[in-house]
Design goal:
This protein is α+β, with helices and mostly antiparallel strands. 16% of the residues lie in helices and 27% in strands.
Length: 85
C-alpha cells in the first residue's frame, strides 16, 4: 500500500512540472548575458515592434520589469521608440 501511495504522489508531482520551463543554460544562445548569472531573456515584441526583455537568474532574485535595448546596445526600462531593437 505504501508503494502505491508513493507512486501516485510521484506521478502527481512530476505531472505538475511546467512544460514550458527551460533552464537558462538551454536558452543562452538567445539571451543577453549581463553578469555571471544574470541574463536578459527576450519575451516578445510590444505594439511598436520593440523587443521586450526580462531579467532572469538561477541563483538570485531579479526585478520583475520589462527592459528594452536601444540602438547602441544599452539596456534600460525606458523605451526609446525610434531607436529600439
Amino acid at each position: 500500500m505504501k508503494k502505491l501511495f508513493l507512486m501516485v504522489i510521484s506521478i502527481l508531482l512530476f505531472g505538475c512540472e511546467s512544460e514550458n520551463y527551460q533552464p537558462i543554460e538551454k536558452t543562452q544562445q538567445s539571451n543577453n548575458k549581463i553578469k555571471s548569472d544574470l541574463y536578459y531573456v527576450p519575451i516578445g515584441r510590444d505594439d511598436d515592434g520593440c523587443m521586450m526583455y526580462q531579467a532572469k537568474s538561477e541563483s538570485m532574485m531579479t526585478m520583475q520589469a520589462i527592459i528594452y535595448q536601444n540602438g547602441l546596445g544599452k539596456f534600460s526600462m525606458s523605451r526609446d521608440k525610434p531607436n529600439c531593437l
